[in-house]
Amino acid sequence: MGRYKRMHNHLVVDDSGKTMKVVKLDGKIYPAFGEEKIRGISSLAIRKDDVLLCGYIKTGCHWMFEILHMLLNGNPQLSKHGKELGGFIDALPELILDALPSPRILNSHLLYGELPREIQKMKTKIILTVRNPKDTVVSFYNHIITLKATYGYDGHFNDFFKLFMDGEVENGDYFDHVLDWQRAMKNQSDNDILMVSFEELKANPLKCVHTLAAFLDVPIDQTFAREIVDACSFSKLKHIRRNDGPFAKLFRKGIVGDWKNWLSAEQNAAIEKRWAEKMQNCIYQPEM
Q1: Cα dihedral sign for 253, 258, 261, 263?
Q2: Residue 83 has what pLDDT?
Q3: Does residue 30 form part of some domain?
Q4: Which domain of life is it from (predicted)?
Q5: Is the residue at 110 inside a domain?
Q6: CA angle 169, 174, 180 (to 5 degrees)
Q7: Cβ–Cβ under 8 Å, residues 57 and 171
């Protein structure tokens, strides 16, 4: 499989003048995969046995993808290509997506209302990943800096932090993104949505694997569950994916609380203030 192409139509500029390649459509910022690709996602054909993996960028989708792959295939073996080339609908051409064997795990960082329309008719099950915004912004920054050839950005963390808080990054405002998905969970009945937090997956992976299996109606015993947990430990994933070209760099630390090494007291307070203002009624409440 070839790598997907990135095409931007807009440059986000930080306070120091550093630029980042994105696509801007209808006032919202998306990854630089091209306008045509992003506009075409809503009409993507969906199969009856597809599973959707959604969530804001850097909230654990790569990790979750491998767990789901093992559950759905009944084998504790990693996927051949990972999520970037194994079902990332935000970027992959439809020709590649059509060639993927069933059951497909289709990954997206979009909002519920931006997903393929057929998911409602097919009653597609959705797994939603969430993560503490403090760790998310740190992981997001390192993701972009590591993939400089892709994003064209080499700015400082302090400048990126402001872009993140202003929603001037791909897929927009983190807080609005989480709230939009919460509304989808509460207000629609066509799709079952299971929310799994990065922190929960890290603290109790065995319990999460059993929860995911029950949600997907996949039979599982304790032995298979433990095999999945062992095969999907972050250290093993990082080691095995080390030769995956640019995608090898997507596995950095995989820990909870790395934000303490990055955020200033003022930045920490800014996130906590925003959370208090907007997220008090959110069903996801990470330890701040």
Answers
A1: positive
A2: 60
A3: yes
A4: Eukaryota
A5: yes
A6: 120
A7: yes
Pairing of strands 51-55, 28-30: unpaired
Q: How confident is the model at residue 239 (pLDDT cuts 50, 70, 90)?
A: low
> For position 226, what pLDDT does the model report?
97
End-to-end CA distance of the chain: 41
- Helix (H) / strand (E) containing 193: strand 193-197
Distance, CA of 66 to CA of 101 (rounded, Å)? 15
Domain count, the chain: 1
pLDDT tens-digit series, residues 146-182? 888 889 999 999 999 999 999 999 999 999 999 999 9
CATH number of 214's domain: 3.40.50.300
Domain assignment of residue 3, yes or no: no
User: CA separation (Å) from 88 to 51, 153, 244, 284?
Assistant: 12, 22, 16, 25
Residue 166's CB: how many other CB atoms inside 10 A? 12
Which domain covers residue 237, as residue numbers? 10-278
In a domain, 144, yes or no: yes
Buried b (16+ CB within 10 A) or exposed e, 125-160: bbbbbbbbbbbbbbbbbbbbbebeeebbbebebbbb
Write down the residue that tokens 């503490």 correspond to: 132
Task: Give the distance from CA 89 to its chain's centroid.
Answer: 12
